[in-house]
Amino acid sequence: MGIFDKLKKDVKETKEEVKAEVSAAAERTGAAAEEAKAAGEARAEAAKKAAEEAVAKAAAKKAEIAEEIRISEAKEKEKAEEKAKEKAEAKQKEEKQKEAKKKEENAKYKLKVDGLWGDDTTRTTQHILGIKEDGICGPETNKAIQKKVGAEPDGIWGENTTKAMQKFLKVTVDGVNGPETVKAWQTWCNSQL
């Protein structure tokens, strides 16, 4: 065996060794790649699972917050309704008190329906019409009555004022301010108290 043969043999052996090493390295690389791939897939699966858990947690928290908001809004609505109810009851109580006070105050203005126009009839008329209550049936009182019954408000009592009053009271319209007209006016005044 000559040097060339020996060199050939050494080259061949070296080639085989290199080939074996390359093959082993390829196997190791393939195994490492498989391991890396498996590890990457495991990490990806773990990340996906963690993301799903995070989404589920976020959805649960969102639902919890939505429920808290709903409960809070329901409580606020209930409070507002209770407050409105209390306010309405207070207003109703106040109205009843005002009405009772007005009735009590108006009781002193009730007239005896006797057909006689005197100070009491004048004072009650003034009270109902919201003018100065002095018991004097002067121009101011006449104007207020005339406005109420639809007569020309000139402050002078005459036949036209009496007729307008009679029409207003739905009694016989004759222009005479007699007992029947006065009784009808007294009855109307009492109905306004």
DSSP strand content:
under 5%
Helical coverage, percent range: over 70%
Number of DSSP-assigned strands: 0
Shape estimate: rod-shaped
Tell me the structural class.
Answer: mainly alpha
Query: Helix count, per DSSP?
Result: 5
Q: What series of H and E elements makes up the topology?
A: HHHHH
Biggest sheet features: none
Could you say how many structural domains there are in total? 2
What is the first-to-last residue Cα distance?
Answer: 149 Å
What's the Cα radius of gyration? 54 Å
**Mean of all residue-level pLDDT scores:** 89
Q: What ranges have pLDDT less than 50 throughout 5 or more consecutive residues?
A: none
Give the helix/strand layout.
Elements: H1 3-107, H2 119-129, H3 139-149, H4 159-169, H5 179-191
Descriptive account of the structure:
- The protein is an all-alpha fold and 193 residues long.
- It folds into two domains: 1-99; 108-191, no CATH class.
- Helix content is 78%, strand content 0%.
- It is built from five helices and no strands.
- Helix 2 packs across helix 3 (139-149) and helix 4 crosses helix 5 (179-191).
- The chain is rod-shaped.
- The N and C termini lie far apart (149 Å).
- 8% of the residues are buried.
